Amino acid sequence: MISSGSGRLRIRLWWKFAGEDLIVFIGGGREHVGSASICDGKLYTARRGEHMDFVVSDSAVQRINRELGITACVICGIHVDNASEEEIRQLVRNADECVKKLVERIRTSDRRPQRSSDPPA
Prior knowledge:
Layout: E1 2-4, E2 11-18, E3 21-29, E4 35-39, E5 43-47, H1 54-68, E6 72-79, H2 85-108
Helix pairs in contact: 1-2
């Protein structure tokens, strides 16, 4: 897990490789599934109702695809009650910081994604 920020503005990020592809969850506050974005060079987005989480998931997945050259799916769910506009901007910055840390961690890791023909156990 990677995190950025503190208190009600803390954002957490988890990830898992699925063969050569990457699945990421970004959440904060009352976490939920607000959006899912996939990028394989082209962006695909699913948005839940009026949730604005796609702003974070779209940006994150495009950065991961561009900087690591892999297909990725980012699921995002951030909800902080009565967040001010400045708090929302800080939540987005914290999410961006988490994605930056993730990209660097994967870039410098010995563990690069490997294609597997076997389904997960």
